[in-house]
Write a structure and sequence with these properties.
By secondary structure, chain A is α+β, with helices and mostly antiparallel strands. Chain A has two domains: about 190 residues, no CATH class; about 130 residues, Cyclophilin (Beta Barrel). Chain A contains five helices and 21 strands. Chain B is about 30% helix and about 25% strand. Classes of the chains: A alpha+beta, B alpha+beta.
């Protein structure tokens, strides 16, 4: 089965959980910005959570879907409709006849995820289907989707087909899609604007005043923000003294401060190494919430211990595992 | 060895640890980093995700879910988080490492066709230093090169050890596309572009060698941090012949 892209949206890319093990070869990790939502979308259609989903940024895509497809939407609310009828998020949707899925502007959040039963049939490059824009590899032809692209979809499992049959039989309405009455809670990623961080490697390089400002003043996400990083604007941060830093590894969530004093949060497409002092590191559990914040909104940073960061991470993974069990039961 | 045991460890969030042997660009630190990476690859702990060697050390990425399940609670319930388990493990490993440069440094020879269409800036570099083109080539070949780190682009080596006499500032206007394999100079650094990318380096030649191999899952990057690198000059005919071999999959 195929999905025909009618309108792509400004930045729609295929992403899974990233390329693991190749940073030493200079290869970026990439992967879904909000890996929680990407995994949730795949679980909802009976896929392995590590399967790729379509990540749509701010403005979603419009796609021609085929009869028999089962898909799910998670993450940002992109006001999805089929034949003018709203398509709910956080549940499996069975396509009854060929139809057009139209997505619009993000009303809540910044990145929407679309997963389809059977997954996207694109080559696995170095263990991943993620799009690596800079090197033009992975995903769909190494690039963001464009109008006219045809995405191949893998075969869905027999179990999912039986599930779809059942859902469609129950549904008496003459619409192009059928769905279930249950859904999973996936909106916690749109919570408040407090982002928790641990100390960065050069935390001690900053003046006491700057450390105070960093944790007490708001920082606004500027429009110069993309999958590589969020450029922030707020009270300028200063080093105690000018020191040279030899390039060292940076990761998703590292907050670095160039000499101009405005922090940059590095995101999924960040370089493997960087030479700016790092004041903090966003805890993994808050990355989904961070990347769902739209540009021109504020962030507040709160410091937590490493032990607390790990606890939050394990708690979130545990939550996803519980959701996975519930979904599995409901798909039977 | 002192440098090894003086390693500084810092969290890089709750899922990675940065081991640093110093703060300067120094071949000694690079040797230590490479030795630690090799040791960890030989003796991985469960939960180890990946390693990244940089100028001064190694970043070790791990999965707390695995460490929790298999280590923390069973082995030492007093530790409150995975980072401590990994830190202890690396500390123990560091005492076991025996450094001998001969063991760790791989020598990689990279053929370069200098000048002409392959190195459009060779003439500029020669004029800049009031040398002949041959002198620039000779100096470039004579360098004792060490690959400190792979980064910036897939397979792109940060190389130290170029003779200062041919250090040349970057171009004022970067080129939009630098052909794959281009060998260039930027300040006192030299390097080779494995893929076509934009860049401002002074291009003095090109290598027909595929420096980044997408389909080689084990070693996509021909060069690795800690490798010793040698450049040698080839003719345009040799360039074409090696390029044909590389392209036909003879690797």
């Amino acid at each position: 089965m195929n999905i025909l892209v009618k309108k792509s949206g400004p930045m729609s890319t295929l992403q899974d959980l990233g390329r693991i093990g190749y940073q030493k070869h200079g290869v970026l990790v990439n992967g879904a910005m909000d890996s929680f939502s990407s995994r949730l979308a795949n679980l909802l259609v009976g896929n392995n959570p590590e399967e790729a989903s379509l990540e749509m940024t701010m403005l979603g895509a419009t796609m021609q879907l085929q009869e028999g497809m089962i898909f799910a939407l998670t993450g940002a609310d992109l006001a999805a409709t089929i034949d003018g009828q709203p398509v709910p998020r956080f549940r499996p949707i069975c396509v009854k006849r060929d139809c057009l899925l139209t997505c619009g502007f993000g009303k809540q959040g910044c990145r929407g995820y679309f997963a389809v039963a059977g997954g996207f049939d694109v080559p696995i490059i170095m263990g991943s289907k993620s799009t690596y824009l800079r090197a033009k590899i992975g995903g769909f032809e190494g690039r963001a989707l464009a109008e006219g692209d045809v995405l191949k979809v893998g075969a869905s499992s027999a179990a999912m087909q039986i599930f779809a049959q059942r859902v469609m039989q129950k549904d008496g309405v003459n619409s192009a899609f059928a769905t279930v009455s249950w859904y999973v809670p996936g909106t916690f990623i749109f919570g408040d604007d407090v982002i928790r961080v641990t100390k960065g490697q050069q935390y001690d390089w900053f003046t006491e005043e700057s450390i105070h400002d960093f944790f007490n003043e708001p920082y606004s996400i500027t429009l110069q923000s993309d999958r590589m990083g969020y450029r922030l604007e707020g009270t300028l941060l200063q080093y105690k003294e000018k020191r040279e830093l030899v390039s060292e590894p940076v990761i998703f969530g590292s907050i670095q401060v160039p000499a101009d004093g405005n922090p940059i949060i590095l995101l999924a497409d960040c370089q493997t190494a960087g030479g700016y002092p790092k004041i903090a590191q966003v805890v993994c559990a808050d990355l989904p919430r961070l990347v769902q914040r739209q540009p021109k909104t504020d962030l507040h940073f709160k410091q937590v211990s490493l032990a607390e960061a790990e606890r939050l991470y394990l708690q979130q993974e545990d939550f996803l595992n519980k959701l996975a069990e519930v979904i599995k039961r409901n798909l039977q | 060895m002192k440098i090894l045991l003086g390693a500084k460890m810092q969290p890089l969030g709750e899922t990675a640890i940065q081991v640093s042997f110093g703060e300067k660009i120094d071949p000694q630190l690079c040797i230590c980093a490479r030795a630690l990476a090799a040791e960890l690859e030989q003796n991985p702990f469960s939960g180890l995700k990946e390693l990244e060697v940089s100028y001064t050390g190694v970043a070790v990425f791990f999965e707390p879910l695995v460490l929790r399940r298999e280590k923390l609670e069973k082995i030492n319930p007093e530790l409150s988080h995975s980072y401590q388990v990994v830190e202890n493990y690396i500390n123990k490993l560091l005492t076991k490492i025996k450094l001998s440069e001969a063991d760790v440094a791989t020598r990689v020879r990279v053929p370069v066709c200098y000048g002409g269409e392959y190195g459009p800036d060779l003439e500029y570099v020669a004029e800049y230093h009031k040398m002949t083109k041959e002198e620039v080539i000779h100096k470039h070949i004579s360098g004792d090169y060490l690959v400190y780190m792979i980064g910036f682009a897939p397979g792109f080596p940060y190389v130290g050890g170029m003779p200062e006499e041919i250090a040349t500032p970057r171009r004022e206007t970067p080129r939009l596309a630098i052909p794959k394999g281009s060998v260039g100079i930027a300040g006192s650094q030299t390097g080779a572009y494995p893929l076509e990318t934009p860049g401002g380096w002074q291009l003095i030649g090109r290598t027909p060698l595929e420096l980044f191999r997408l389909n080689d899952l084990k070693h996509p990057s021909v060069l690795q941090a800690g490798d010793r690198l040698e450049f040698y000059a080839i003719t345009p005919e040799q360039f074409k012949s090696i390029a044909a071999q590389e392209g036909s999959g003879a690797k």
